[in-house]
Amino acid sequence: MSYDSSNIFARILRGEIPAHRVYEDETALVMMDIFPQSRGHTLVIPKAPSRNLLDADPAALSAVMPLVQRIANALKAATGADGIRLAQFNEAPAGQTVFHLHFHLIPVYEGMALAPHAGGKADDAELAELAKAIAAAL
Ligand code: 5GP
Asked: Domains of the chain (ranges plus CATH)?
């Protein structure tokens, strides 16, 4: 299947839809997931168009991984999480719902189960506060 530029993350990257932005540079956007699996669930989105890992340009992958690491550390510091889960889904049977490559960084808190993937919507004010706190920890 080929890349479809009408997907929701492409629209966010074009500024057509708002997002709780944590960080942005010429290669990637980092924002809060609005249906978080835990407090602080963050998405790292390379700007280069690809559906997922399978069709991504290797150069785009190597450019984004240091940022994934940087955000993971800032996220852990800002939320006080006990661990960080990195997740990435490729095609619908594997759990992918938005077809523009992205990396999930999901804080894990000891003794607390994660909410289901793409479940309930988070409070906007809380997401705005988290985005600010993670950005400040970068
Ligand atoms: P996937 O299932 O494709 O790996 O993950 C897509 C993620 O995007 C899900 O975790 C879902 O909660 C999140 N999501 C879906 N729509 C929106 C949106 O409009 N804005 C934001 N910030 N996240 C979204």
From this structure: 8-137 (3.30.428.10)
